[in-house]
Amino acid sequence: MFKKNRYNLSGKKWLIIGDSITDKRHHPKTKKYHEYISEKTGCEVLEYGVSGSGFTVKESFLERLQRTPLDVDYITVFGGTNDFRLGSKTLGVFQDRNSESFYGCLHSFFQALIKKYPTKQLSVITPLPRWRESEGLWNSRGETLKQYAEAVKEVTSFYGIPCKDMYSEGGIYAKNPVFLSAYMPDGLHPNSEGHRYFHNKILTFMESL
């Protein structure tokens, strides 16, 4: 058990909207990053992760936003990998403002997020790097996950929402077989040790807000 120090998150309600990296129902034996953070800080996590979801796929983040509670202190959105690999919508461009592209869906979601939580502390985390030999670097549309991570950074910057770049600055060496074996055996989902490995980076980010 971690020794509890005083954190900004202590005693706060932290709402997280995400995919399988956040969803405790996915790989139920895997301890998630937010569980480590909750143990350290004493914050209450309201986990709204759904495996396979994203900004454009499954029950989209925008759809899920309709059922999130108002009584929270921090809201974090963590996703994008399923839009890259499973989504049928193109990446698009920053100027898009419709639901036909990833960029357009980002704009719609973050506008709605700010409208619902204008006085709360908002934050975003880019998708993690991933590597599966069978998938390769590009999706079926010739796009890379890095492009999706950069889109998240670009749109959040436009709206003034703090964003943690876990794709490029997370210390996750997705193409290294030793790293994958230790922390991310399937090339996508961190195991418990993987979540332990990177949770402090997210905690430091959250504490800086």
What's the structural blueprint in terms of helices and strands?
Blueprint: E1 13-18, H1 33-41, E2 44-49, H2 61-65, E3 74-78, H3 81-85, H4 102-116, E4 121-125, H5 145-159, E5 163-164, H6 166-169, H7 177-183, H8 192-207
Parallel strand pairs: 1-2, 1-3, 3-4, 4-5
Descriptive labels:
five-stranded parallel sheet; 5 strands; 209 residues; Rossmann fold; single chain; 8 helices; alpha/beta
Word description of this protein:
One of its GO terms (molecular function) is phosphatidylcholine lysophospholipase activity. InterPro entries: Ester_Hydrolysis_Enzymes (IPR051532), SGNH_hydro (IPR013830), SGNH_hydro_sf (IPR036514). This is SGNH/GDSL hydrolase family protein. Residues 17-196 form the SGNH hydrolase-type esterase domain. The chain has helices spanning 33-41, 61-65, 81-85, 102-116, 145-159, 166-169, 177-183, 192-207; strands spanning 13-18, 44-49, 74-78, 121-125, 163-164. β4, α5 (145-159) and β5 form a beta-alpha-beta unit. Strands 2-1-3-4-5 form a five-stranded parallel β-sheet. It is built from eight helices and five strands; from the N terminus they run βαβαβααβαβααα. It is globular, with a radius of gyration of 16 Å. By secondary structure, it is α/β, with parallel strands linked by helices. It has one domain: Rossmann fold (3-Layer(aba) Sandwich), CATH 3.40.50. The mean pLDDT is 96.
